[in-house]
Specification:
globular; about 35% strand; about 20% helix; seven-stranded antiparallel beta sheet; alpha+beta
Length: about 675
């Protein structure tokens, strides 16, 4: 087996009367040949450690692939005179984007083939994909490194030719004005923050583009988008806690933007437009938001009319306007629901879902005048499905349910939603999925997943791959710990800043509850998380290394002190409102108390598989690399701690769908090997 040697290259730090040494600071030197050699040696070591699973990996890959309809197409979405959709072809890694004119029976027009654009690139990702209002032009952007740095190009859809317009170093923002020759886009600063909005006219060089706005507060990121009514362009400056939106007419792209409501610390809001009104979702009266409206011609707060009050038990996640309907996306008791209000009426009606746990979202609602609401729905046992809900008849029409080839039968599996009591009495939602015929009278292998940050919700979604674990007798569980917003924005607040330890203690409590109920044993309990969820599992195993049999950590954010002290890194300044600024002593001490890298002390650690992406702009590759090196140095157990680095991708791993399946098969093989289920 290959071995990995880590060269010592310590660096000393001192802050707030504390001095510490980082023995692995040299791993940050991405340009160093020694660093690249080290990462390649790590990959060779991991591959050698996993050599015995080669046949299993192929079996898993074939199983997972066998549950995917390789040649498939999405539900067509009507926009103007066209029906737009994407499709996949067997053997091709990426989607093909198509449309048909006026009728689904019309001849197909392929307007962008991602596979052609991806040829010759190890990584490929589409950023924006926006047709002009007259549907004659397509603006699209691509990332070929995984660093989320996109290049915009424009294609003439009549001739198929690319125009001369090409703009580099952009982010995934682009919105057309009504004149079909002007669009707005965002560009990145040195810390990869979208900090400028520019206006581009077709045919002009990018150097001639006019700066619309530059955001100087490094906590804020910029975005620009069109209202669903197509009448207004909104420019949004947003931090983790604060919003400011400016408005201009889509019909007059050279007119200046006017601020709707000046930014006020800790006040977030969002706008949608319908007829004579702007509808405003805002948290000025409570963390879970309320809904008000104001005339398009009068934005003063004196003109605001409340439509939905703030409710402490209901989180108003979003509001969408149709020409004659308002849609509220809400979360009640941890579950999503849709409510709608017809124009001119006062009674809100609710769209309910019956399963114990699920994930639902609005999708493909491009026609402002539509009388149906399109939404997606899935659960751990229900494949992704697209429905149209008719507002007038109150009926649901299934447009498409993802086909699962093979002998998949959803009735073989059970979903359970329960609670775990945390250290302070908080009840933490737990979702479990397993085979119905699994013997629950004795402990079973269990994979516990969590995230718990940024107010991001970990809902119960479907995974074709997961059945390769469930069918081998594994229980899959999700812990909806504080830091997410499953139970409303106060749930997020209780797991951020100085309250961040709650997230980790919630996760440990969830694990302990599963042990107490006899669902699993410590040896059979593996925990999984990625990015901020990697911090979650990293902190949990650092606090309680005795509690787990394994850790699967994807691109984990584990070097928290060093990263949050480096304002030049992407995301750092913008995330002071999530983790705290360590320049302030109270936040420094709070972060240092839980940062996995800084708290990795001699202990018997369980087996671990840790992943990284060399081009990752969100969690730099050196965080997992340094953590693994330190873990190995102090581990008092003979357990394997492996690092797997994707040398040609970023935060989200492989971009091609077949390449991604190989990554999943590798991770699942590691899980099964760790459980002894080879």
């Amino acid at each position: 087996m290959h071995s990995v040697t880590v060269r010592k290259g310590p660096r000393e730090y001192s802050l707030h009367d504390i001095t510490w040494t980082d023995d692995y600071a040299w791993l940050r030197d991405k340009e160093s040949p020694e660093l690249i050699a080290h990462l390649e040696a790590e990959n060779a070591h991991t591959e050698a450690a996993m050599e015995s699973t080669a046949a299993l990996r192929k079996t898993l890959y074939d199983e997972i692939l066998g549950r995917i309809q390789q040649t498939d197409l999405s539900v067509p979405v009507k926009e103007g005179p066209y029906f737009y959709y994407s499709r996949t072809e067997e053997g091709k890694q990426y989607p093909i984007y198509c449309r048909k004119h006026l009728s689904l029976e019309a001849e197909e027009e392929v307007y962008l083939d991602s596979n052609e654009l991806a040829a010759g690139h190890e990584y490929f990702q589409i950023g924006v994909l926006e047709t002009s209002p007259n549907h004659h032009l397509l603006a699209y952007s691509t990332d070929i490194a995984g660093d989320e740095d996109y290049t915009i190009r424009v294609k003439d859809l009549n001739s198929g030719a690319l125009l001369s317009d090409e703009i580099e170093t952009t982010y995934d923002t682009l919105t057309w004005a009504a004149d079909n020759r002007t669009f707005f886009y965002s560009v990145l600063d040195a810390a990869r923050r979208p900090y400028r909005i520019l206006r581009h006219r077709l045919g002009e060089a990018a150097s001639q583009d006019q700066l619309v706005f530059e955001e100087t507060d490094e906590r804020f990121r910029l975005d620009a988008y069109l209202t669903r009514s197509d009448q207004f362009i909104l420019m949004e400056a947003e931090s983790s806690t604060t919003t400011e939106i400016s408005i201009t007419s889509a019909a007059d792209p050279e007119a200046g933007f006017r601020v709707f409501r000046p930014r006020q610390q800790d006040i977030e809001y969002a706008l949608t437009h319908q007829g004579d009104w702007f509808y405003l979702r805002i948290n000025d009266r409570g963390r879970n938001f309320r809904l008000v409206r104001t005339p398009v011609t009068n934005w003063s707060e004196e003109a605001w009319e409340e439509i939905l009050p703030h409710r402490p038990d209901v989180y108003l996640e979003g509001v969408t306007a149709f020409e004659n309907y308002l849609i509220a996306t809400e979360r009640y008791e941890g579950l999503q629901r849709f409510r709608y209000l017809k124009k001119g009426e006062n009674e809100w009606r609710t769209i309910h879902f019956s399963e114990q746990a699920y994930a639902a979202d609005l999708t493909g609602n491009l026609e402002f005048g539509a009388t149906t609401l399109r939404y997606s729905y899935q659960s751990p046992v229900t494949p992704p499905s697209v429905f149209d809900f008719d507002f007038e008849t109150q009926t649901h029409e299934l447009k498409k349910r993802t086909a699962i080839p093979g002998d998949f039968d959803p009735t073989r599996y059970a979903i359970e939603r329960t609670m775990a009591r945390s250290h302070d009495g908080a009840e933490i939602p737990l979702i479990l999925v397993h085979r119905k015929d699994l013997d629950l009278s004795k402990p079973q292998p269990l994979l516990l997943y969590g995230y718990g940050a940024y107010g991001v919700n970990m809902d119960a979604s479907f995974s074709t791959a997961r059945f390769s674990l469930l069918d081998r007798g594994v229980i899959y569980a999700i812990a909806q710990v504080r830091g997410g917003a499953e139970m409303g924005q106060p749930w997020h607040d209780a797991g951020r800043m100085l309250q961040k330890r709650n997230s980790f203690l919630d996760f440990i409590a969830a694990a302990q509850s599963l042990l107490d109920r006899g669902r699993t044993t410590k040896e059979q309990l593996i925990i999984e998380g990625g990015s901020a969820g990697g911090l979650l599992v990293g902190a949990a195993v650092t606090m309680r290394p005795d509690l787990f049999g394994g850790v699967l950590a994807h691109v984990p954010f584990v070097d928290v002190v060093n990263t949050m002290l480096d304002a030049s890194l992407p995301l750092t300044v913008g995330e002071y409102e999530e983790w705290g600024n360590p320049a302030d002593a109270q936040y420094f001490h709070a972060i240092r108390e839980y940062s996995p890298y800084d708290n990795t002390k001699p202990a018997a650690y369980p087996s671990m598989l840790v992943t990284a992406g060399l081009n990752d702009p969100r969690v730099s590759y050196w965080e997992p690399a340094k953590w693994v090196a330190r873990l190995r140095e102090v581990n008092l157990h003979s357990s394997e701690i492996l690092l797997k680095v994707n040398m040609g991708a970023g935060h989200f791993g492989a971009s091609g769908r077949y390449d991604r399946l190989h990554e999943i098969a590798f991770e699942y093989a590691w899980l099964l090997k760790t459980w002894g289920l080879l």
